[in-house]
Design a protein that fits this description.
The protein is mainly beta and about 180 residues long. Helices cover about 0% and strands about 40% of the residues. The protein has one helix and twelve strands; from the N terminus they run αββββββββββββ.
């Protein structure tokens, strides 16, 4: 087998599908580095239902930089989240609904982490990127809040980012899709 895959128990919203028979499709995700277009191995790829945020499945990119999701309910919209320790985590809403009986191929380009610092969230911190001509990024105390809109995040956090030169026009498009 060329692709690593796993069976997924897919829950659907019957109102959304209006009593039509459930049809299935799939995603093939190729992950590359923005730095040199090399394949990204051992990247974690998660597939979420766009409307509910429900985690549908998780896979790891193989030696060919590919992860595959099969037997996914078609007609719905999905989001991909791709992470790897050497690259910035990237989330992508897929621009169209999954088609029945087809595998949608997606290529995602990840940017290499050029700066990463851990600090206590309620104290803030400063990040000094490599090759940034002395530039720094300062995160003030209590700058991060919980995703639920609650109070400030506490504890140790890691902030990572990537450098790019806007003038070079080499900012990656990050996602390419074909059916």
């Amino acid at each position: 087998r060329l692709f690593r895959s796993a069976p997924f128990d897919v829950q659907t919203d019957t109102d959304f599908f209006c009593d039509h028979a459930k049809t299935l499709g799939g995603f093939s995700v190729l992950v590359r580095s923005a730095e040199d277009t090399s394949l990204v191995k051992n990247g974690r790829v998660r597939l979420y239902h766009a409307d509910t945020g429900e985690l549908i499945g998780e896979s790891t990119t193989n030696l060919s930089g590919t992860a595959r999701f099969d037997n996914i309910t078609s007609g719905a919209y999905y989001n991909l989240s791709v992470s790897h320790p050497d690259y910035t985590t990237t989330d992508y809403p897929l621009p169209r609904a999954l088609e029945s009986d087809k595998t949608t191929s997606v290529e995602i380009v990840l940017s290499v982490i050029t700066a990463s610092e851990e600090f206590v969230a309620d104290e803030g911190g400063t990040i000094e990127p490599q090759n940034a001509d002395g530039a720094t990024v300062t995160v003030p105390p209590n700058a991060f809040v919980s995703s639920s809109g609650g109070g400030p995040v506490s504890g140790t956090i890691r902030v990572s980012f990537s450098n790019f030169d806007e003038a070079s026009k080499e900012i990656p498009d990050h996602i390419y899709e074909s059916a």
